Amino acid sequence: MIHNFKPDYSRLPRELNLLLDILKMKDDQKINQESLLNIHWDSFLKLARHHRIYPVIYPKIKNVGQENIPEFVIQTLKNDYKKNIFQMMYLSAEMESINELFNQSDVRLLFLKGPTLAVDLYGDISLRTSSDLDVLVPIHDLEKVDKLLLEKGYEKDDYILSVLNDWKWRHHHLTYFDQSKGIKLEIHWRLNPGPGIEPRFEDLWARKRICEKFDSPLFVLGREDLFLFLVSHGARHGWSRLRWLMDIHQILLKELDWKMLKNLLEKYHCTHLAGQALTLASSLLNTPINTKLQHIIRGNRPAKLAQITMFYLERLVNLHTEPLPTDIANYHSRYLYSIKSITQKIFYFLNFLYPYHSDSMIMPLPKGLHFLYFPLRPFLWIWRKSKRQALS
């Protein structure tokens, strides 16, 4: 390690420290017996599920035969492991069905997560969890995709409220559900929510790869683009689940074009986020850092960005469960601002000058007059803020 980040493991739950020890174990290595003392095993299982790492934990424990781990813990992990295999096989079948449907309609698609990511990074669908499917398509194909999915039996979750087409860059995906199959499908037209600069679909398509081990050709992101996506996605969620750091660990064991990766990180203002990810993975998971990437983790900022994520690991924070507790919501809001580059902060402030759908709720105008929301935006913002303070 060449960074100066030193996690304060004493602030982490003992059960989480044990999980980290197991994740770092070599195939034939035994668990340090001191790590097994005073463990609350129900909490251990809860954390393994929260961090979505039980598919990696169970094989490690099973292979070394730990007699000091209660049998019910081993059995619970085994059951979760088996359930995940069936879940991933189920998703794989739907994934191939979606791929065939889109291909027949000449819709290009790139699979972002799900079974393809498990195969790509871990070599086996059983070693990673996934609760849904994530697909990236060109934005101009969204109407065609919507029709295809509705005809297939999916229902659209119309949660996006928009004015002046701000959905195109403020949001990044639409959500569909097949209630009969219990499957959620996210259709992305961006990798991450805006505002921000990111690769165009055409560029990602030009660098795509074929994911092996499936019956039909499934296209996924190029490995350098995937690293960029995993870094930005994990950072946006505060690395609050160890699974996302495990993904970073796994991809760094693969062959990467380091020059291309460096250029992508710089072009899309993610070098500091990569530094955060590498610092955390190196410190918590003993991830080896290639010498060509070590410049990224030098200096104070990667260590500082890594340090502020410990808030999420010290607590069992689930950012997908809303509404968030006030203290966590406020911390996360400050965190998201702190991880922005200077350019991203400029975009962040310019974003406030563009009308929001809430402006149209305060002062409804005919569609032909929506352009007036631009000059009215400061006044509507002040009015809404003053009203909120008065209610408080």
From TrEMBL:
Pfam families listed in its UniProt record: NTP_transf_5
Tagged with keyword Metal-binding: no
UniProt key word DNA repair: no
Gene3D superfamilies reported in the protein's UniProt record: 3.30.460.40
GO molecular function, one term: transferase activity
Lineage of the species this protein comes from: Bacteria, Bacillati, Bacillota, Bacilli, Bacillales
Organism of provenance: Falsibacillus pallidus
Protein name (record): Putative nucleotidyltransferase-like protein
Keywords from the UniProt entry: Transferase
